[in-house]
Amino acid sequence: MTSFHDGAYPMAALSALVALFRALVAKGVFTREEAVRVVLDEAVARAIQAEAEDQHTDGRASAEINRQSAEILKFIADKL
Asked: Which of 13, 21, 67, 77 supports an S-S bond with 39, CB 3.0-4.6 Å?
């Protein structure tokens, strides 16, 4: 895979997730507030997990991934 593909797949997944949540909100399955709350709850869980893993020296890579995941989830919640 090229470096372009490395970034393209996560961006496509992010776009699909935002589209899915918007469709669910439009259909009335979720209210906007419920969808944002679900995504932000997961972001908080990821951030807490990253903090816990950061206290262990061998969990630095996964802690960074969880931090990035939390930031992505906050971004998604902001776009809903």
From this structure: 77
- Whole-structure pTM value: 0.62
- What is the rounded distance in angstroms from the CA atom of residue 16 to the CA atom of residue 45? 22
For residue range 11-70, list pLDDT tens digits in order: 777 778 888 888 999 999 989 888 888 888 888 887 777 777 777 656 567 777 777 777
Number of residues assigned to the chain = 80
Domain coordinates in residue numbering, the chain: 3-79
Type and span of the H or E element at 22: helix 3-27
| Dihedral (CA of 12, 20, 35, 80) sign | positive
